[in-house]
Specification:
globular; GPI alpha-1,4-mannosyltransferase I, catalytic subunit; transferase; glycosyltransferase
Length: about 400
């Protein structure tokens, strides 16, 4: 009886935190309207305005890809049509609700691990009250939707609902290409005896994933033609973003912006990332280690990517709470790594501010601060791997 009462109290407490976290997000959404009106630098993400414009085109029975720089799934514009019909902040509220659902999924996944209730709650709170999560979501960034699909796919896989997991994985890849890197560790996690011949579950995962990707792609092509294929998929493969960002490659791309594409340059940029992704997939191929495999793959994909923005941190921060119970690191070391990460990011932001808003030629300093940020991220990744114990 006491256990039942204690469980009900814990559920009630977690529900209260979910409601509180949602209210905090609503307050930030209201603040965004004030900030956008009175400050030169807007709070709302420019992509949110792109989503809203694309939704307006959908309502007018036009292609969302008529909106310049709309390079997302057309179905995202469909989902955000209430931005036009109901209220411009509908999408932000929707993404905030999805944020709360992610926290619930995190708690449910951790419930299948052998860790106490307090630790499960703390891991979920890490997502609910993370300042980066709060800001990125309330700015109107849609990555919370991709994170939700990835987390739900992981949850379904761990519950042996392979076909549903495959279908959902295909949907997540359609909405955002980055979940594609999780395909190999997901596939290997279903391996039982023979690593070279796919078993029944692996076939189910592959076929259901292919079915959802093909179905959504054919539907998008039928509705919007080749423009859909190029803007949603092909553009991301051939893009050459020379604007300043956290990546160590940005300065090289900036200096070579007017040159023709160099295949050697692309190989140099992507080969280290590819090798590390393959190695981590194989080394952490057990089903119990799947969350950790996805977590470190997300970190590798972000820090070695030619383009890195703050929203990319969503990719691994959403998976970190699922791995924390198995990362046996001292509190002091954890604090030092977190402070190093924040400080190195602050140094980069300062130099970027000097370039963007003070018109100071800080490209060299920006590149050096990018190298610092890269080194700090690699150090954190190495320490996490060293202290992981499943």
């Amino acid at each position: 009886m006491m256990n039942i009462i204690r469980t009900k109290i814990n559920i009630s407490s977690f529900t209260s935190h979910c409601l509180l976290a949602f209210v905090v997000r609503l307050i930030l959404i209201l603040y965004a309207n004030f900030h956008d009106k009175y400050f030169n630098v807007p709070y709302t993400d420019v992509d949110y305005k792109v989503f809203t414009d694309a939704a307006r085109y959908v309502i007018e029975q036009r292609s969302p890809f008529e909106r310049h720089t709309y390079r997302y799934s057309p179905f995202l514009a469909w989902f955000l049509t209430p931005n036009i019909i109901l209220h411009k902040d509908f999408g932000k509220i929707l993404f905030s609700v999805i944020d709360i659902l992610i926290a619930i999924l995190i708690k449910n996944i951790l419930a299948r691990q052998k860790c106490n209730e307090t630790l499960k709650d703390l891991c979920a709170f890490l997502w609910l009250y993370n300042p980066l999560t709060l800001v990125i979501t309330t700015r109107g960034n849609a990555d919370s939707l991709a994170v939700f699909l990835v987390t739900l796919t992981l949850d379904l896989l761990q519950r042996d609902k392979v076909v549903l997991a495959g279908l959902l994985h295909g949907i997540s890849v359609h909405f955002r290409l980055y979940p594609l890197m999780f395909s190999l560790p997901m596939f290997l996690s279903l391996c039982k005896n023979n690593r070279f011949l796919p078993n029944k579950d692996q076939w189910k995962l592959m076929l259901s994933c292919a079915f959802s990707i093909v179905t959504l792609t054919i539907t998008g092509y039928y509705l919007y033609g080749f423009k859909f294929l190029y803007e949603s998929f092909l553009y991301h493969l051939v893009r050459k973003d020379a604007r300043h960002n956290f990546s160590i490659y940005f300065y090289m791309l900036y200096l070579s912006a007017n040159q023709s594409p160099d295949i050697i340059q692309k190989i140099v940029m992507f080969l280290p990332q590819l090798l590390l992704l393959l190695m981590s997939s194989y080394y952490y191929s057990e089903k119990s280690k799947l969350p950790f495999a996805m977590f470190i793959q997300a970190i590798i994909a972000v820090i070695y990517n030619p383009v890195i923005t703050s929203q990319y941190f969503f990719w691994f921060l959403s998976l970190l709470p699922l791995c924390l119970p198995n990362i046996k690191m001292s509190f002091c070391r954890s604090v030092c790594l977190i402070c190093s990460w924040i400080l190195s990011q602050a140094v980069w932001l300062l130099t970027a501010y000097m370039l963007e808003f003070q018109s100071f030629n800080s490209f060299n300093f920006l590149w050096i601060s990018g190298l610092l940020f890269f080194a700090v991220n690699v150090k954190i990744l190495v320490d996490i791997i060293h202290h992981y114990n499943c």
